[in-house]
Write a structure and sequence with these properties.
Elements (H helix, E strand, L loop, with lengths): L13 H32 L13
Length: 58
């Protein structure tokens, strides 16, 4: 979060812009973490030694 290091928030309308940018960066960070978790889970599911999915068996 680059903008947090700028110190004290500016007065007036700038606070809303600063806050929106900060939240956008935070949300993008959460998305990146979520992508990593999903990729790891998909890798586990596609593992050749994984047990078969019992829900698919008739």
């Amino acid at each position: 979060m680059k903008r947090r290091s700028q110190g004290v928030l500016r007065k007036g309308f700038g606070n809303q812009t600063f806050f929106a940018q900060l939240m956008e960066e935070y949300f993008e960070g959460l998305l990146a973490v979520n992508r990593e978790i999903c990729m790891m889970q998909m890798a586990e599911k596609t593992s050749p030694d994984a047990p078969p999915n019992c829900a698919v068996v008739p």
